[in-house]
Amino acid sequence: MNSLLDQQMADDIIGRLQQLTPDHKAEWGKMSAHQMLSHCADVLRDILGDRQTPVLVSPEVAERARQIILAPEPFPHDLRAIKLYRQEDGGTQPTNFQDDRTTLISLVKRLQSTAENFSFGPHPAIGFLSRDEHGFHTWKHLDHHLRQFGV
Predict the structure, then answer these.
(1) pTM recorded for the entire structure
(2) What is each CA distance from 47 to 19, 28, 94, 122, 139, in whole angstroms?
(3) Domains of the chain
(4) pLDDT digits 0-9 by tens, 26-35
C-alpha cells in the first residue's frame, strides 16, 4: 500500500512537489497550484496536531466518506473539499509560493518521521484513523493533487 510513512514514497512526493511551479495549470478543479499547496498543508497540519479541527459530519456520512478516502482507487476529479480545507471558507490562505511549498515539504517530512506511537489528530470528515490509514490517505491526497497539476 502506498504511504507517506514510507521514506521512498515520501521522497517521491517531495520530488514531485519540487517540480511544481506557480504556472502549472489544473487539469480539473478550481484551485491554482499555489492554493493547492496551502490546501494540502492544512490536511497535514490537522493530523499532526498543528491545527485543532472538529469532526464535522454524522457517523453515517463519515462512513461513506471513509469508503471514498480509504478506497484503493484514486479520488474522483469532481470531489469537493470540505469547508475547513477551502480557502474561501477558512482554510489557510496562500502567501508566497516558495515558502508555502517549503512548509508543505516540511510537513510531509514530519509526518514521515513520526514515531510509531504518535497520536494523530482526527480527520474532520471521518474522525480518527490508524497510523497506516493516515499514511495511505495523505499519500493518496497529495498524489491526487499533484496529478491534478500534471506533476
Answers:
(1) 0.92
(2) 25, 26, 20, 6, 13
(3) 7-148 (1.20.120)
(4) 999 999 999 9
